[in-house]
Each structure stands twice: as structure tokens, then as C-alpha cells.
Specification:
Layout (H helix, E strand, L loop, with lengths): L7 H15 L1 E3 L1 E5 L5 E5 L6 E3 L7 E8 L2 E4 L3 H6 L2 E7 L5 E7 L6 H32 L11
Antiparallel strand pairs: 1-4, 2-3, 5-6, 5-7, 7-8
Length: 151
């Protein structure tokens, strides 16, 4: 990412959504005894857990304005030609949750609307592809290959 270009915000948003998708929260029960003392009981079963719903977690798409056009996920050379970029946060249903302009240049309203529409379309496709990969990874279960120091 740092050597070959690419946008840090985009990569982090994908990583955060994937991490939240894999998060498991153990089930906890609170019981009360006869004297009114409360006791917290944590399930010993690692599969007895609650999963987080990540359907509405947005991903960020970066569009860079170059001349009268815009580029998604600009290369290093394209970034050098761009004076302004727009970070668009998009949910899986295509709803925009935030916009942020970065760079010294300006964006006219017409190009902002075009970039928003492109960001929606790309964002929905990104969510679809990410969810497909996450579902494939989930279907492997414990048979998936462990990589790295956590394996």
C-alpha cells in the first residue's frame, strides 16, 4: 500500500469491515442469588457467541479529479496530476454516509454530483465483492490455512 500507491482510507475501511464481520462476542448471562448479589456467567463454549451485524458498515471510495474527469483508486502518477480528491463513504445499499474533499484544488458542484454517483456505484460493487470473499472465508471454517504469527 505504501510502496505502490493506493488509498489508505479505502484500505482501512475494508479492513475494519472485515474485522467487525469476524468479531464474535461471547454470550453473557447475569444471575441473581437469594441475597441479591449478581453474578456474571460467561459461556465456556467458543461457538456460543453473538455476531455483529455489518450490513450498514460503510466502505470508503476515493475519487480523484483529473482535468474534467475523475478516477477511482488513482495510481501514484494519477494522484500527482490531481489537485483535489473526494472521499465518499458508502453503505452496501448505496447510501452515502459522508463526503470529504482533500487536496488544494476545488471541485465544482456538477463534478461533485458525478463523483458521488460514481462513488455509489463503485461502493456497492466493493461491498458485494467484499461480502463474497468474507462468506467464502467463513465457509472454510477451521479447515482454512492459518497464516502469520496468529496461525
Amino acid at each position: 500500500l505504501l510502496e505502490c500507491g493506493g488509498n489508505l482510507f479505502d484500505a482501512i475501511s475494508i479492513a475494519v469491515k472485515a474485522a467487525l464481520f469476524n468479531t464474535r462476542i461471547p454470550k453473557v448471562q447475569v444471575s441473581e442469588d437469594e441475597e441479591g448479589f449478581k453474578e456474571i456467567e460467561l459461556s465456556d463454549d467458543p461457538y456460543d457467541c453473538i455476531r455483529l451485524n455489518v450490513d450498514e458498515v460503510p466502505c470508503i471510495v476515493t475519487l480523484s479529479k483529473i482535468g474534467y474527469r475523475h478516477v477511482v483508486d488513482a495510481t501514484l502518477q494519477e494522484e500527482a496530476c490531481s489537485l483535489a480528491s473526494l472521499l465518499i463513504s458508502v453503505t452496501s445499499k448505496g447510501a452515502l454516509t459522508s463526503l470529504k474533499k482533500v487536496g488544494k484544488g476545488s471541485l465544482d458542484p456538477e463534478s461533485i454530483f458525478e463523483m458521488m454517483e460514481t462513488g455509489k456505484r463503485v461502493g456497492k460493487a466493493l461491498h458485494t465483492a467484499l461480502q463474497k470473499v468474507l462468506d467464502e472465508e467463513e465457509s472454510l471454517g477451521s479447515s482454512r490455512q492459518k497464516v502469520g504469527f496468529l496461525g
